[in-house]
Amino acid sequence: MMKNALFFFVLGIITGVMAVELFSQIPKRHTIFYDGLMFSPELLVIRFGDSVTVYNNSTKAMEVAAGKHENHKNLQGFEEKIVKPETTYTFTPLEKGAFDFHDHLNPKKLGILAIDE
User: What CATH number is attached to the domain comprising 100?
Assistant: First the structure.
């Protein structure tokens, strides 16, 4: 009887560890908010395969762009977009690394997106 209890206890632990591992591999959705003054969070670290939604919570249109102003970078999976007030733009980066992003219409407003394994 004791061996059965120990077997099921160990089986439960193994099953739990496998479930945690599987759950950690499910792509997640992240949101960056823009209020016209700043991005929040200003630094977002995601895993490769996760998606990012930029939510323009300001009263003016913004143009989300990758890279520093004047030196825009081509980030696979991302397109430079105008995002109207109270609307969103969602993308899934297709490359790893750290990338600056900004509002091209107000280039002093910067953020960083880091894509890790």
Answer: 2.60.40.420
